[in-house]
Design goal:
heterodimer, A: mainly alpha, MetI-like fold, 2 strands, B: alpha/beta, four-stranded antiparallel sheet, about 25% strand, Oligopep_ABC_C (chain B), Peptide/nickel transport system ATP-binding protein (chain B), transport (chain B), ABC_transporter-like_ATP-bd (chain B), ATP hydrolysis activity (chain B)
Chain lengths: ~325, ~325
């Protein structure tokens, strides 16, 4: 098990280095960084001096090594537009994005799995057919449209929920701010989380349904019935558990996407998260932020995938053997 | 005569499909006495497995029991509520399936599945159920059962898994065990062991067995009586010795004749010409008449009812007294 984790960690470092290389290459190929820093009036000597002081005359490999070394210490340089350390900027906004992503993922799982189970077990009921129809809407409507529709109905027309922002937040520790502890913070989370999680929810629902239908046809379910087990034990103990491996895989991948692609939802709801920061960075060619964001998302994907691999072994004993052998 | 454990009367099972109603079982009647092993043989699609599923109440839509009665120790069980029938399954009727590789849930240990079954049917504590599970594993011949109980199904070989399945089927001391092709998926070398095991365990407990198979060798060795099925009906049923050695029904004659023998040399095995009719095209009269070499006019019109002949029943007009002269 330990050997497996170490092996996966080494692989993860490889992935992160590759992403770091792409991030670093942006500095070189998307314009001259010196132009981004100095004013238009700067003389050629000043430019050369800055170039030297930033180490831009060093060989490519040396510069890359220096970038990776700093990144390992969470130093991603100074943002061009804000003149502040990138780490601080991202750190301030990360809690907002992570909280939103977390609530969306929980919403997708807590609603999606039971709906999937229900539609599989009561295939012919009208409610199951309704869920199926609604889920089609969920997978096919674009996120921004769902967000705007929700705002129109619940914020504008009914006036029940706020249409933008995070509400009041409470500071926890040095840099984490949370919206979980205030009513307005919680209320502000509802619409963006539904918007962000709806696609994942319908995806999980359809996945669970398909997997359940598959598993319910297997011999061991038939044998479980022949053993006289209760419906509940068969449906949830035996059938649902066997659908979990694909569900965990998809959920893991989707959780990464939720965080990475919160951009659209954050824009629609003016959510003060990393996505909005990233969009601003793109508009202003703020490469340090873009590069750091790229690395951060890659890091999250790697961590989530590692967690998924470890979860497999918990759920399915047959995979534990391959994990041990690896 | 003692009361039979299982008594099936005029059982009909139908599958409702878009193209019409298919009669998978059409008027099957038989009894199984306590401790008796009834072999059920026939070609694929003859209705052997469906009969087993009907008895244990596992016919799934679009299939349904369309008529007849199933009695377990005199009580009707074919019209029980789903919940009452669930309590009969596993407790009073155990079932062994064909493929041990897929019969066990891969995500739970053997012990978890045994304890779960035991505690569903018997009022035992978790510890007592575990001890019982270990005893059962020892009884079905699993070495080091106190250690193996915590193993997962994939850590057992095919033969060992079938032993676990047998332990599961017997875990609540059922009165009847339905074994649906219990050896078909196993190595030939393991088949004999499994059959001997089922026979021994059921004999010790006085459990009746309904052994569904297409392996005549297994039937000849194991069964007390045998039912030969054809197109959802019983062609002939009687003591295994009589039916195997001196079959009466032309189909049974063909079936027994097709078994290769070591004593006589044959270049070509005996073959019954034609194939069993599809369920959607069962001919009127006797379903076997288009393939039967001794068929006569009445066979195409009149459905033969089971006739008593010595200790057996045979559904064939050849043995009807009124037509004896035509037959001879």
């Amino acid at each position: 098990m330990l050997a497996f984790i170490i092996r996966r960690l080494v692989q993860s470092i490889g992935v992160l280095l590759a992403v770091a290389f792409i991030a670093f290459a942006m500095f070189r190929f998307v314009g001259d960084p010196v132009n981004q820093i100095v004013s238009i009036e700067a003389s050629a000597e000043e430019r050369a001096q800055i170039r030297e002081s930033l180490g831009l005359n060093d060989p490519f490999v040396v510069q890359f090594a220096r970038y990776v070394g700093r990144a390992a210490k969470l130093d991603f340089g100074i943002s061009y537009q804000f003149r502040q350390p990138v780490t601080k900027l991202l750190g301030e906004r990360m809690p907002a994005t992570l909280e939103l992503a977390f609530v969306s993922a929980v919403f997708a799982l807590v609603v999606g799995i039971p709906m999937g189970v229900y539609t599989a077990l009561r295939r012919d009921s009208w409610l199951a057919k309704l869920f199926q129809a609604v889920s089609l809407v969920g997978v096919s409507l674009p996120t921004f449209l769902i967000g705007i529709l929700l705002i129109y109905v619940f914020a504008v027309t009914l006036g029940w929920l706020p249409s933008f922002g995070r509400g009041e937040v409470v500071r926890l520790g040095d840099w984490w701010t949370t919206g979980f502890l205030t009513t307005s913070g919680l209320r502000a989370l509802i619409l963006p989380s539904i918007t962000l999680g709806l696609f994942q929810m319908t995806l999980i629902m359809r996945l669970v349904r398909a997997e359940m239908l598959e598993v319910l046809r297997t011999d061991y379910i038939k044998f479980a019935r022949a053993r006289g087990l209760t419906r509940r034990a068969i449906n949830f103990g035996h059938a649902l558990k066997n659908t979990l491996v694909p569900v965990i895989t998809i959920t893991g991948l989707q959780l990464g996407s939720i965080i990475a692609f919160a951009i659209i939802t954050e824009t629609v709801f003016q959510w003060p998260g990393m996505g909005v920061l990233f969009l601003q960075a793109v508009q202003n060619v703020d490469i340090p932020i873009m590069a750091a964001y790229l690395l951060l998302i890659a890091f999250l994907f790697v961590v989530i995938n590692l967690a998924v691999d470890l979860l497999y072994a918990v759920v399915d004993p047959r995979l534990k053997v391959t994990v041990r052998a690896a | 005569m003692t009361e039979p454990v299982l008594s099936v009367r005029d059982l009909k099972v139908q599958f409702v499909t878009r193209r019409g109603v298919l009669k998978a079982i059409d008027g099957v009647s038989f009894d199984i006495a306590p401790g008796e092993v009834l072999g059920v043989v026939g070609e694929s699609g003859a209705g052997k497995s469906v009969t087993g599923s009907a008895v244990i109440g596992l016919i799934e839509p679009p299939g349904r029991i369309a008529g007849g009665e199933i009695r377990l120790k005199g009580e009707r069980i074919d019209n029980l509520s789903p919940e009452a029938m669930r309590r009969v399954r596993g407790k009073r009727i155990g079932m062994i399936f064909q493929d041990p590789l897929t019969s066990l849930n891969p995500l739970y240990t053997v012990g978890e599945q045994l304890v779960e079954t035991i505690r569903t049917h018997l009022p035992l504590s978790a510890g007592q159920a575990r001890r019982r599970a270990i005893d059962l594993l020892a009884e079905v011949g699993i070495p080091a059962p106190d250690r193996r109980i915590d193993g997962y199904p994939h850590e057992f070989s095919g033969g060992m898994r079938q032993r676990v399945v047998i332990a599961l089927a017997l875990s609540a001391e059922p009165e009847l065990v339905i074994a649906d092709e219990p050896t078909t998926a196993l190595d030939v070398s393991v088949q004999a062991q499994i059959i001997t095991l089922i026979k021994r365990l059921c004999a010790e407990r006085g459990t009746a067995v309904m052994l569904v198979t297409h392996d005549m060798g297994v039937i000849a060795e194991t069964a007390d009586r045998v039912a030969v099925m054809y197109s959802g009906r019983i062609a002939e049923i009687g003591p295994v010795r009589d039916v195997v050695k001196h079959p009466l029904h032309p189909y049974a004659v063909g079936l027994m004749g097709a078994i290769p023998s070591l004593e006589t040399h044959a270049d070509r095995l005996v073959q019954i010409r034609g194939a069993m009719p599809r369920l959607s095209a069962i001919p009127p009269g006797c379903p076997f008449h288009p393939r039967c070499e001794r068929a006569f006019a009445r066979c195409a019109v009149d459905r033969p009812e089971p006739l008593d002949r010595d200790r057996r029943k045979v559904a064939c007009h050849l043995y009807d007294e009124a037509h004896a002269e035509i037959a001879s």
